[in-house]
Design brief:
The chain is α+β, with helices and mostly antiparallel strands. The chain has 21 helices and 20 strands. The chain has a five-stranded parallel beta sheet with strand order 2-1-3-4-5, sandwiched between helices. α2 packs parallel to α3 (64-72) and α15 runs antiparallel to α16. The radius of gyration is 54 Å and the shape is rod-shaped.
C-alpha cells in the first residue's frame, strides 16, 4: 500500500476547508491538514513538511501571494509545489501566481476529479524533480571526485616528469605503480618506456615494444586519428583526444589520451603518453543525459496536456461563469436543506437553507454549538433520535417526518431522508441527509381533507333530502289515491249499496289509472323509461322538446353519438345535463342554452353553456349551495371522469365534463 502524501490546505473560508478535506480524504491517497490563515499555514509547514500546498489567494492580512513569496525565499520550503485556488480568472492574477513560484492555478468552482488529477500530476513532477536533483548531486559528486582524481593524477604526472628528468629509474617505478596507462616516445615516435598498466590494458609486451615505432605496433585507424595530435606534441603543444579500443578482456573501452611534450634544455626530446579509461564516466554522463531528456520529454508532455486542458477550461469558462450565479441562486434559495456528515454524524457541510428553515445560524450548527435534536419538539424527539442512530449505524431511510420549533418559536414539519456515502474502496465514510420543509403541504392537506369532509357531509345531507322528497311524493301522491281505491272496494261490500256498481267500478278504474300514472311519473324521475328503452340521445332530445314547449328559451343541441353505452354512463350523463338545464331555468334566467355531446375514440365529452346571470363559484362552494351539480361532479369523478365549472356573475356559466368508455 502506498504511503499517503501530506496535503496542506490554506483558506480563510471554513466551509471550503471542510469540503476540500472531505473530498481529498475520500480518495484514501492523502493525509490532509488545514489552516485558516496564511500565518497559521506557515507555522504548520514547519511542523508537517507537506508534499503539496493548496493555497487560496484572497485572504485578509497575509494573502496567498505573501505566503508563496515567503516559501520561495526559504531554502527548506522553496521546492514544495503550490497550487493556487482562487475565484479570480483574470490573466494578471495567473501570471503573478506563476512568477511567485506557483506550479498550477485552479479557478473556483472546481471539478473534483480534475483537482485530484492535477494534484497527482504536480506530486509526480515534484518527485521526478527531487529524483533528478539527487541524481545530479550524485553525478556531480562522482564527476567532482573523478576530476579531483584526474587533477591529482595530472599533478602527480607533472611531478613525475620533473623527477624523470633527474632520475629515469624513479620515473619507471612511479609509472609502473600508477593506475593510468603511461608510455614515453622519443622524437622518432619510438617507444622508450611503457608502464605495466599500459602493457596489460593494450595487450602489448614491453620487451617487443621498446624501440619500435608506433606505426609498427598500432593500427592504421588509430594512427589516422592520433597522428595530428602527436605532431602538435612534437611542436611543443600539449594535446588530447579520445578513442575506442578493445582491452585485454576484449571489452570495448573509451580512452582519453593526453600527449605532453617531454622538454629538456628548452627542446622537445620526446612525448609522454598518458591514457585514462573514461568508459564509466561516459556511461554516467550518457545516463544523466538520457535521464534529463526523459524528464524534459515528460515535462513537455505535461506542458502540452496543461495547455490543452487550459484551452478546454477557457472554452468552458464562459459557461461556468454564466452558471455560477444560477448555481449560487439555487443553493441560496433552495428549499432543500442538504447536510454532509462523517461516520459519527458530525456535520461537515450544509446548504444555506438551514438558516431559512430553522432561523438559526449555520456556523453554530457546523461548529456543534447547536444540534438538530435541540429544536425538535418533545413529542417527536425520541423518534428523531432513534432514526439518527440508524444513520450513524449505516442505515438509509426516506421521508422521516418530524416537527421542530424554529428560532422565532414557529412550529414546522420537516421530512428527512438519509443516504450513506462510500469511497472508491467501498468504505463507508459518512452520510448525506436531505431535509425538506413540508409545513405548507401539511396545511394544504389538512384544509383539503376538511373541505372534502364538508362536501361529503353536504352530499349525504342532499341525498337524504332527496330520499325524503321521493318518500313525500309517494306518501302524498300515491297514498291518497290508494286510500280512495280502498274506500271504493269497501263501498262495494256494503249490503245497503244504492249506487250502481258500474259507476263505482268506473271511479275505481279512474283512481287506479291515476295511481299508475303517478307511479310512472315518480319512477320516471328516478330512472326514465324512455332512457332505458331508446337511449341517451333520444331521451335528451325528448326532454329538450318538452322543456322548450313549457319555457320561453332556446336550447341548441348537437351530437355525433349513434350508439348505446352502459346504463351507468347513460344515466350519469342524462342526470348531469338535466341538472344543468333545470338550474339554467330556475336560477340563471337564461334565454339560450348550448349543449354539445361528442364521442371520440375512448371517451364522451360534454359541453354546456348558457347566457344567464351566472354565479360566484367560490361563494357557492363556501355556502354549500348548488349541491345538485356537485353531486353530479362527485359521481363523474367516481367513474374516473373529469368535471369543470366556470362562471362569472352576469356572464353566464360554462360546464365541461368527460367520461371514458
Amino acid at each position: 500500500m502506498e504511503m499517503q502524501r501530506n496535503i496542506l490546505i490554506i483558506d480563510d473560508t471554513q466551509s471550503m476547508l471542510l469540503l476540500l478535506k472531505f473530498m481529498l480524504e475520500t480518495t484514501g491517497e492523502f493525509q490532509v491538514f488545514t489552516a485558516a490563515s496564511g500565518k497559521d499555514g506557515l507555522r504548520l509547514i514547519e511542523q508537517i513538511k507537506p508534499d503539496l500546498i493548496l493555497l487560496d489567494i484572497a485572504m485578509p492580512g497575509f494573502s496567498g501571494f505573501d505566503v508563496c513569496k515567503n516559501l520561495s525565499e526559504n531554502k527548506e520550503t522553496k521546492d514544495i509545489p503550490i497550487i493556487f485556488l482562487s475565484a479570480f480568472t483574470d490573466t494578471f492574477q495567473k501570471i503573478k501566481a506563476f512568477e511567485l513560484g506557483g506550479v498550477d492555478y485552479i479557478t473556483k468552482p472546481f471539478n473534483e476529479e480534475e483537482l485530484i488529477a492535477r494534484i497527482n500530476i504536480q506530486l509526480k513532477i515534484a518527485n521526478l524533480n527531487k529524483q533528478l536533483r539527487k541524481s545530479n548531486e550524485h553525478l556531480e559528486e562522482r564527476v567532482k571526485q573523478r576530476t579531483t582524481a584526474l587533477e591529482n593524477e595530472i599533478a602527480y604526472r607533472k611531478e613525475t616528469e620533473e623527477k624523470l628528468l633527474q632520475n629515469r629509474n624513479m620515473l619507471e617505478q612511479i609509472a609502473d605503480n600508477s593506475s593510468a596507462f603511461i608510455a614515453l616516445l622519443n622524437t622518432k615516435l619510438e617507444y622508450i618506456f611503457i608502464s605495466k598498466e599500459y602493457e596489460v590494458f593494450f595487450r602489448l609486451q614491453k620487451e617487443k615494444l621498446i624501440g619500435k615505432k608506433i606505426n609498427q605496433i598500432l593500427s592504421e585507424e588509430y594512427l589516422s586519428k592520433a597522428m595530428p595530435f602527436l605532431k602538435k606534441a612534437l611542436q611543443g603543444e600539449k594535446t588530447k583526444f579520445s578513442y575506442f579500443v578493445l582491452n585485454s578482456l576484449n571489452e570495448r573501452k573509451e580512452v582519453n589520451t593526453i600527449y605532453t611534450p617531454y622538454i629538456q634544455n628548452n627542446e622537445v626530446t620526446g612525448i609522454i603518453v598518458l591514457a585514462i579509461d573514461i568508459t564509466e564516466i561516459k556511461k554516467t554522463e550518457a545516463l544523466l543525459i538520457k535521464t534529463q531528456n526523459e524528464l524534459k520529454e515528460i515535462n513537455n508532455q505535461l506542458e502540452n496536456k496543461i495547455i490543452e486542458r487550459t484551452k478546454e477550461l477557457v472554452l468552458k469558462n464562459d459557461e461556468l461563469y454564466q452558471s455560477k450565479n444560477l448555481f449560487k441562486y439555487f443553493v441560496n434559495h433552495s428549499v432543500s436543506w442538504e447536510i454532509f456528515c462523517d461516520k459519527q454524524g458530525n456535520p461537515l457541510y450544509c446548504t444555506p437553507a438551514f438558516e431559512k428553515i430553522t432561523g438559526y445560524k449555520m456556523e453554530q450548527y457546523l461548529q456543534g454549538i447547536i444540534k438538530i435534536k435541540d429544536f425538535v419538539i418533545d413529542a417527536d424527539k425520541e423518534k428523531y433520535i432513534q432514526y439518527s442512530k440508524k444513520a450513524i449505524k449505516g442505515d438509509n431511510f426516506e421521508n422521516l417526518e418530524f416537527r421542530i420549533l424554529t428560532a422565532n418559536k414557529q412550529t414546522k414539519y420537516l421530512s428527512k431522508s438519509v443516504f450513506q456515502v462510500y469511497n472508491q474502496k467501498n468504505e463507508r465514510i459518512g452520510f448525506r441527509a436531505g431535509l425538506i420543509d413540508i409545513s405548507k403541504q401539511k396545511e394544504e392537506k389538512a384544509a383539503r381533507i376538511a373541505a372534502e369532509n364538508k362536501i361529503f357531509n353536504a352530499i349525504i345531507e342532499s341525498e337524504e333530502k332527496e330520499r325524503a322528497h321521493f318518500a313525500k311524493e309517494l306518501h302524498d301522491g300515491i297514498g291518497p289515491i290508494l286510500s280512495t281505491i280502498k274506500m271504493f272496494a269497501e263501498w262495494l261490500k256494503r249490503p245497503d249499496l244504492k249506487t250502481p256498481k258500474d259507476e263505482i267500478y268506473k271511479k275505481m278504474e279512474y283512481s287506479i289509472e291515476e295511481a299508475v300514472s303517478t307511479v310512472k311519473e315518480i319512477s320516471n324521475n328516478l330512472s326514465p323509461h324512455i332512457l332505458a328503452n331508446f337511449g341517451l340521445v333520444f331521451a335528451l332530445k325528448s326532454f329538450i322538446e318538452k322543456t322548450q314547449a313549457l319555457n320561453s328559451l332556446v336550447i341548441h343541441f348537437i351530437t355525433n353519438i349513434k350508439q348505446r353505452f352502459s346504463n351507468e354512463i347513460e344515466i350519469t350523463i342524462y342526470r348531469a345535463l338535466l341538472e344543468c338545464i333545470n338550474n339554467s331555468i330556475k336560477h340563471a334566467q337564461a334565454k339560450n342554452i348550448s349543449i354539445s355531446l361528442q364521442l371520440t375514440s375512448d371517451k364522451i365529452e360534454a359541453k354546456f353553456s348558457d347566457d344567464g346571470i351566472g354565479f360566484d363559484y367560490d361563494y357557492v362552494i363556501q355556502q354549500q349551495k348548488g349541491l345538485g351539480l356537485f353531486n353530479i361532479q362527485n359521481r363523474i369523478h367516481t367513474l374516473g371522469g373529469n368535471f369543470k365549472i366556470q362562471s362569472v356573475i352576469h356572464q353566464g356559466v360554462n360546464i365541461w365534463f368527460e367520461l371514458y368508455i
